[in-house]
Amino acid sequence: KEITEAPIIIIGSGYGGAVSALRLCEAGKKVIMLEMGLNWEKSGIPYSNLLKPGKSSAWLRKKTIAPFMNLFSLTPFTGILDRLEFDHINIWVGRGVGGGSLVNGGMAVTPKESYFKEVFPSLDTEKFYNHYFPLVREELKVNVIDEQFLKDCPYYKFTRVGEEEAHKAGFKTMRVPNVYDFKYMEKEFRNEVPRSALNTEVIYGNNHGKNSLDKTYLKKAMETGNLEILDLHKVEHIKLNNDKSYTLNAQQIDTSGNVIADKIFHCKKLILAAGTMGTLQLLLQSNAINDFPIHENIGKNWGNNGNFMTGRNWVKPLSGGTGTKQSTIPVGGIDNWEDQEHTFFTEIAPLPMGMDVATALYLLINRVDKKGEVTYDKVNHLLKLNWDESNTVKMRENAKYFVRKMNKANGGTRSHFLFNNGFGADICYHPLGGCVLGEATNEFGKLKDHDNLYVLDGSLIPGTIGVNPFVTITAISEYCIENLIKQNEFA
Ligand code: FDA
What's 459's domain CATH number? Predict the structure, then answer.
């Protein structure tokens, strides 16, 4: 087997991985990044849109795996969207160079300061709000839609109707920033450039407009000349050596998923940035295979960030509903976080199905009163998630309250068209926790019981952050890597 030696290896190219790569490369360190998904930018293969799913639409599946309406057959390909299925919850994740930034809706929300403080009592809140959050908003190219464009553009009727209805029901709304370049979108609308958000592109990738990580952090890291990204390389398990270095077993695959090479990597310093579920899988699986040491807090304090989907049918059907054409990029939210009884934030989500389905879709983000735990079934070699309906009781109550109040003020019914009973309790886009900062790691993400192993991704956040999480994941990663470098961890 081919053995590659590297001083520093990062597994995964999502937010945590991209931030670590940039800061280490800027500090003059040579880094190898292993990513199981494809480097789409390099491959030149275009992404598909929602109405014509193709190569990019699913990770090695014969059928699409969007949250609903999966009528399309596929030829298995290393697409960018994957779905991890557990008994009571399905978790969607991104695969490819750029991780979740390739599939997500780009909503770039800074958490409420008071909630951030509650979730991370030991962090310097002031430093985060004065330094790390502004820094990452700049690096990620966060911007806000122009209000006049929003008012005039037929593709945002769903947002205008959503906000109007929310106000009528007595809810407060807020503008949601995004990494999609809204100036580009305005040009799309005027037909001056190829269309992306206005052409139903999002969860299978955006060919234009979206500043995903390959256009921001990873691009800058590549420009230092110190980063090498090996795509289609899936790390299977990790071994701790006597000299406290790590040996990684990886498989290189082709775009049909066939293994084309078994490879071994050896490194002194290892950063796990495989996303919450990927990092937990690597740690727990390695523990099952070779007794890889793991701290007792690994897997604990996991949550779905309060994700709970719901929808309403026949929203304003007589006045043209939510619009035949919809932009895929959400810009509106309903902020009910101050309500102690029903605490939630919800995104006014698009449903760009190419026809007016007079349906409003919402992704609620709630508190997580009861956390779950990720474990490993050594007999069947499967990741297990201790999570069921008891974990989402309050989220369901909030969704019911929300829909009832909206329907009372505006008419409409719970959407049975999208979900059983109108509720998608099992839909999760934001898995968080399991390697919680300060619990399974030290204060900067270095794993307990290890000298040369670090975790930098969503698993550091204890299951909840109250808003869409990537801005927080990026900020926490900036904070950790800055301090780890300062402490000479990578000297
Ligand atoms: P992330 O998951 O981004 O990256 C991990 C990478 O590691 C992946 O590329 C994966 O392929 C790779 N990997 C895993 N295991 C590996 C292995 N064994 N070997 C090699 N590579 C491996 N958030 C938000 O703030 N705003 C939003 O609008 C949305 N919208 C949204 C929509 C959809 C459909 C999804 C699925 C998710 C979102 N999110 C979101 C969530 C957001 O995308 C997510 O929280 C972050 O991408 C998580 O970042 P991480 O750095 O933790 O890992």
Answer: 3.50.50.60
